[in-house]
């Protein structure tokens, strides 16, 4: 496992998410990338019941890159890595921690390989509605983010506006050996910020019911709303 | 050789068949004509003589002689037919023998001819292409052989230069000088190798060296350079024989096998496969049998420059990536980083 | 509680328990070595540190989770285990049955559970031998207190005897396994009497 950097890809106004994804895929294919299957990172949020003090939020994340594992992140920052039987255990704890089905998020899309780089273009959705694009770039041969950050920046510049700094979470771990947990933490942060911006967007919208009605049929409508609040 | 026998047998067989056909035709002709034929055509002139000679009671004798004639004719024809058939059989056995030899040469592919669905399977055509590839490979190999035999890459000590000095010595002193082997790179003792390695270890603190000896006296060095790469170097005495470079998080150890080092399998990553190639080239460059310790030391110095593999931009194009690879080549003199295609 | 779906997906543990005094343990080990698989190898040993965490659920029932760490093989993953309420059943049922979820996890599980709101109830060291026969697992172990607290090299044993357990973990509905366990337990008589033991009745 190399170094992974996850970034949110902005959607310009007047374009649908699918258009942007198609454009990105075209860019990558012109660069010579080959499709190597699909991927999916999903996140389910559990909230603690009233008898747990202080109250906690628990995110359970699965990554198709580690299909037998399950990552449980508490809002304290602790990340437990375990096998997928943990999902069953969460069901037995349904009296203590409960999830809202509508808050299940996932980033799903195609996986590309370009030399030693792996690029994943994922469309993020909460339930049925589209919420944004996350791009994951992995550089396999290197394990220390600090060594290869400039290299990855140059690579990302080839098909997207490359970010100036690594992800907030990664900045504190630039000289440590990268682990799969670090990937999950980045996804968790991005999911949280997307969730927050969505919440803000729905609260600014005059009718909260509008969001649910926009649903799958017109995904761009939901995006167009969430964009202005982000900036 | 087999071919000539073959054609002889074929021609002999064909000739025999032709004659047999003629004979059979004659035989049937004779049989269809029967005895009447003899009286009318075959011994027409004789008949005249005989009839004139035996006027009385000659009719019977003539008939008898006719029958005898017929039988004897039949006998001669059948006898020659028999001999011809024997001839044909002998040539057939010859043919059968040589054809079986051919099928032996073809091996299993001869069986392809017996495939009823011959047209549908693509085995034959792919066999042809593979034969063509084989021929091409043979051709290239012979070319490579001639080229390589011209530029000697042999690393043994007995090259033309030492032979020349040997000859010179002989002529100078007028008597043959017994050539004594100097301490070459490959006959260092194990403790000597150990001490030199410990010396290098002190010299490069961010490079950890581990010496293992899975093949007896010759050492294998397991090197970890910072947190960038791992390498395995196989030494013969103090001459570097083989290098394999892998990523920091890849393993050389084979699972479930204690103290077993895999020096052959390549890295998963293109970068390190490239670096391995360059390292093997550098190993040949730094090779010096007279000062093996110096050679290994400069090789290590060169290898040590890879600690900046991912972070150093190319000296020439000042970029980090080319073909999605960082600068994988290091100059053997000044240790500058270059891309493979940017090399000076 | 969504108990039904849990029960369907979870595994069941079929178990019989018993105990044997120290002096006779050696004979039992010989017997087990002869009965179980890999009899030619020396019996496999284990030394585990078990932490028991509990939390009170809204309905008043406590939820218990067990965390096990191997002290012999430090590179093994930690083991988190949930055990459901044991079902004794009637006379016809040969073994105790309880639902069971096994999860292998990383070493920060203790921090994780306490941050989730669980409280450490008690902990102990379990040390002994493990045998396998087909799908069956047989353990002969001794329980030690951690005295003084935190001392894992303790020799404060709880009793003068060994705990003997025969168990199989399998998907729900394989009741034939219970019979298999019972017949195996028969072969260990009269050395050790393996029974269905309900911990609730012991209290």
Characterise the protein shown here.
Chain C: It comes from Dinothrombium tinctorium. Chain C: Belongs to the Mediator complex subunit 18 family. Chain C: One of its GO terms (cellular component) is core mediator complex. The complex is a heterotrimer of chains A (about 230), B (about 350) and C (about 200). With about 230 residues, chain A is α+β, with helices and mostly antiparallel strands. Chain A has helices at about 15-30, 85-90, 145-155, 170, 180-205, 210-215, 220-230; strands at about 5-10, 35-50, 55-65, 70-75, 80-85, 95-100, 105-115, 115-125, 130-140. Chain A folds into two domains: about 5-195, Hypothetical Protein Pfu-838710-001, CATH 2.40.320; about 195-230, no CATH class. In chain A, strands 1, 2, 3, 4, 5, 6, 7, 8 and 9 form a nine-stranded antiparallel sheet that branches. In chain A, helix 5 (about 180-205) crosses helix 7 (about 220-230). Chain A is globular and about 55 Å long. Chain B folds into two domains: about 5-100; about 190-340. By secondary structure, chain C is of the alpha+beta class. Chain C has one domain: Hypothetical Protein Pfu-838710-001, CATH 2.40.320.10. Chain C is about 25% helix and about 45% strand. Chain C has five helices and nine strands, in the order αβαββββαββββαα. An eight-stranded antiparallel barrel of chain C has the order 1-5-4-3-2-6-7-9, surrounded by four helices. The radius of gyration of chain C is 17 Å and the shape is globular. The model of chain C is unreliable at about 1-10 (pLDDT under 50).
Uncertain runs of chain B are: 38-58, 157-181
Oligomer: heterotrimer
Tell me the total number of β-strands of chain B: 6
Q: State the helix count of chain A.
A: 7
Strand count, sense and barrel status of the largest sheet of chain A are: 9 strands, antiparallel
Mean residue pLDDT of chain A: 80
Which structural class should the secondary elements of chain B be placed in?
A: alpha+beta
What is the CATH class name of the largest domain in chain A?
Mainly Beta
Give the SSE string of chain B.
Answer: HHHHHHEEEEHHEE
How much of the sequence of chain A is in beta strands? 25-35%
Radius of gyration over C-alpha positions of chain B, nearest whole angstrom: 44 Å
- Terminal CA distance of chain A reads 34 Å
Q: How many distinct folded domains of chain A? A: 2
User: What is the helix tally of chain B?
Assistant: 8
Shape of chain B: rod-shaped
Q: Element order, helices and strands of chain A?
A: EHEEEEHEEEEHHHHH
What is the end-to-end distance of chain B? Answer: 60 Å
Keywords (chain C): Activator, Nucleus, Transcription, Transcription regulation
GO molecular function, one term (chain C): transcription coregulator activity
Subunit structure (chain C): Component of the Mediator complex.
InterPro entries (chain C): Mediator_Med18
